[in-house]
Design brief:
Strand order of the largest sheet: 3-2-1-4-7-6-8
CATH superfamily: Spore Coat Polysaccharide Biosynthesis Protein SpsA, Chain A
CATH topology: Spore Coat Polysaccharide Biosynthesis Protein SpsA, Chain A
Largest sheet: 7 strands, mixed
Radius of gyration: 20 Å
CATH architecture: Alpha-Beta Complex
Shape: globular
Strand content: 15-25%
Distance between the termini: 51 Å
Oligomer: single chain
Number of strands: 14
Number of helices: 12
Amino acid sequence: MDGICTLASDQVYDQLVALLNSIDAILGSETPVCIYPYNDDTSQIAAEIDRRPNVQLYDNVESMQRWDEFAKRAWDTHPTAFQRWRKAGSTSYHRFGTHRRYCAFDGPFDRFLYMDADTLIMASVEFIFAQLQDSDCVVYDFQYNDPTHVYEVASGKLTKLFSSERIKTEIFCSGFYASKKGLFDQDQRNWLISKLQDGDAEVLYPMAPDQTLINYMMMRSNLSVYNVALNLSQEEKTGCCVTSPHFEENDHILYDKGHRLTYLHYIGLSSKLFAKVCRGENIDFPYRDTFLYYRYLHEPDKRPKFTAKPKPYNQPPSLAKRVLKKLKLT
């Protein structure tokens, strides 16, 4: 069975509802969906799932514990991760829980498409699943333009592990990828840990822990990664990130130079921003109307109504805040 999966907790409730509603609208309300819990804070999303017979909250405790252990063992091998995390304000493993998306390799679907909770589906993904007949992993993004958010590019070991060509063509964003159940059993996980212990760990980029690990897992295991963006013509390929300002909306679907997006990723926007807007704060952000349409698809009467001019989400800090920051008081 094929299905869509994501990672969520109550903190991303509004984004999750928008994603689920986009799946309803674009792929159909019977599309199987599995949500992997980021942490135990899931009461709000559990109540939402109860209203959706096609959606399940993953409850295989043993599977989640196995992946928790794997993530800890992997990062325990890293020479500098904990020092860097402390500088960033993390007291333990950084963003621990993001790796729970790997539970999809144990999960209910033989083939799955993982999507971050801050994404919206915009078109059929049949072509993604079709490509899994010939590939172990299928992605559609442009992360290959910036390997620094996947690996430590300054590490001398990186190009000894993976050729420059592989880095240019195989790395991907962990927010959208399709793969298959059973690729990483206990023996394979143990083998990967042994390679990290032997020195591979220095190539991992600690500030994007789930993204660097899944890339390493795929590439070190010599699994085949197919990037749609590298296999379409320049005219056919579309962008996917909210940072692209040129998408055009028609009937709640976004288009890139006339071509329909497969998905939109609100990457870099805080979950707090979405929560504030859904509570009625008039804060603008890219493709806000698209998000609000899907967020309130099944309850349009609850959609916030804005009349005044919105505040930009990235407005510069006030003079008072700038002064306090300069004085290191904030």
